[in-house]
Amino acid sequence: MIMKKKPNILLTGTPGVGKTTLGKEVAQRTGLKYVNIGELAEEGQLYDGFDEEYNCPVLDEDRVVDELEEQMSEGGVIVDYHGCDLFPERWFHIVFVLRTDNTRLYTRLESRGYSGKKLQDNVQCEIFQTILEEALEAYQEEIVHQLPSNTPEDLEQNTEQMVQWAEQWIKEHN
């Protein structure tokens, strides 16, 4: 049996922009494997301490990369994480950065229980396009695309766009 080559996609953006919802939907419609880095780290205890200020565990980036290496070399993976410069450039065929209006983002994060410095820093991260800039520095500019993620219509449009992109990539590379 000949294995079809499949693309690897990075889905990134500030917490609360809709990466998980979009990633799961695209995976379901394309057959690509969805990997949420937060869940992967939790399952494998891939941590390197605890951040008291943000009240969250600190990711052990080297262990995360080691854990994913084999899957990524096989292809067909959608990686969901709010950072991107920890991953090797060679892993991804395309990078999607989700962007959300900061008032909507504030409300989403507040409803998740974010408060104080953690809430303010994440909203500022979105305002200053921190994740987009990180992606543009870590990957070739032509593979980095920003998508609006404010409404259910945006979600549907982004899902369609990503599914079409994946299908086209598979067609061109097999």
How would you describe the overall organization of this protein?
This protein is an alpha/beta fold. 50% of the residues lie in helices and 18% in strands. It has helices at 19-30, 37-44, 61-74, 102-111, 116-127, 130-138, 152-173; strands spanning 9-12, 33-36, 47-51, 56-59, 77-80, 94-99, 144-148. The chain has a 5-stranded parallel sheet with strand order 2-5-1-6-7, with helices on both faces. A hairpin with a 4-residue loop joins β3 and β4 (56-59). The longest helix is centred in the C-terminal third of the chain and has 22 residues, at 152-173.
Keywords:
7 helices; alpha/beta; 7 strands; 5-stranded parallel beta sheet; globular; about 170 residues
Kindly report how far apart the N and C termini lie: 14 Å
Strand segment tally: 7
Kindly state the mean pLDDT as a whole number? 96
User: Major beta sheet, specifics?
Assistant: 5 strands, parallel
Give the structure's gist in a few sentences:
The chain is of the alpha/beta class.
Helix and strand layout, with pairings?
Elements: E1 9-12, H1 19-30, E2 33-36, H2 37-44, E3 47-51, E4 56-59, H3 61-74, E5 77-80, E6 94-99, H4 102-111, H5 116-127, H6 130-138, E7 144-148, H7 152-173
Parallel strand pairs: 1-5, 1-6, 2-5, 6-7
Antiparallel strand pairs: 3-4
